Amino acid sequence: MSSQAIPVLGPSSKILVAGARGMVGSALVRRLKAAGYDRLLAPSRAELDLLDQRAVFDYLARERPDYVFIAAAKVGGILANNTYRADFIYQNLVIEANLVHGAHLAGVQRLMFLGSSCIYPRDCPQPIKEEYLLSGPLEQTNEPYAIAKIAGIKLCESYNLQYGRQYVSVMPTNLYGPNDNYDLNHSHVLPALIRKTHEAKQRGDRRLVVWGSGQPRREFLYVDDLADACVFLMERGYDGPLVNVGTGQDVTIRELAETVMRVVGFDGVIEFDASKPDGTPRKLLDVSRLHALGWHARTPLEEGIRLSWQDFCARHEGEVR
Question: Is the pTM of this model over 0.85?
Answer without folding.
Answer: yes
